[in-house]
Amino acid sequence: MGSEGPKAITIHVTGFKKFLGVSENPTEKIANNLKSYVEKRGLPSGLSLGSCTVLETAGEGAKSQLYQVLESSVVVSGDNKNTIGTVVWLHLGVNSGSTKFAIERQAVNEAHFRCPDQLGWQPQRLPIVVEDGSILKAKETSCSTESIFKSLKSKGFDVVQSDDAGRFVCNYVYYHSLRFAEEKGHKSLFVHVPLFSKIDEDTQMQFVPCQLNPIFNYINSNSKPNHLYKKISLEGACFD
């Protein structure tokens, strides 16, 4: 018998619309242009780019939209829900105060918005998911941030690993996505990008597809226990 080929992996990407203080969100443009960009360059056999969606920059009021997007990756067959191959969610958000890309290792069960979201919600130290308990509880991604980081560094990108995705909408979406991924057997990763004035659009468009290969290679060579809970003690800042 021949050896098995690589696992089929579909990566879905999300970005965000504008919000207070950010009139042009780079992740909106990236998400809108990514499919055509990737089609011109191709992907490894077994790896496909799924949906590319732009989310409202809002928490509770846009939660139903978020779950509609997440559920779109689940195929309903009779009474059973099955995923086609391995599903990975790659969420992109902007940190307007940064000059580097940041691979986020975790999300925290706390919504603490320094300004209202685009639907007017401004929670203060509230748990994102009440049944998960403390606002100090964090969920970690099961993607190998270290291998992704090393791969991107080797390609010359100015990138860091981060344990603080803020307490604004990015963290809110990431926490829900990690929970959903755990339930469905998917994987989820969040990456912060700077404004185009800090790192230009062409470089950012190159950066995002460069994350796909190390994710693909890691899944096909390793497995890691799904999203782990842990306690944290440091309060994170709210990204713009």
UniProtKB/TrEMBL annotation:
GO terms for biological process: proteolysis. The keyword Cell cycle does not apply. It holds the Pfam family Peptidase_C15. InterPro entries: Peptidase_C15, Peptidase_C15-like, Peptidase_C15-like_sf. The keyword Lipid metabolism does not apply. Keywords: Cytoplasm, Hydrolase, Protease, Thiol protease. Gene3D superfamilies: Peptidase C15, pyroglutamyl peptidase I-like. One of its GO terms (cellular component) is cytosol. One of its GO terms (molecular function) is pyroglutamyl-peptidase activity. Belongs to the peptidase C15 family. This is BnaA07g09970D protein. It comes from Brassica napus. The gene is BnaA07g09970D.
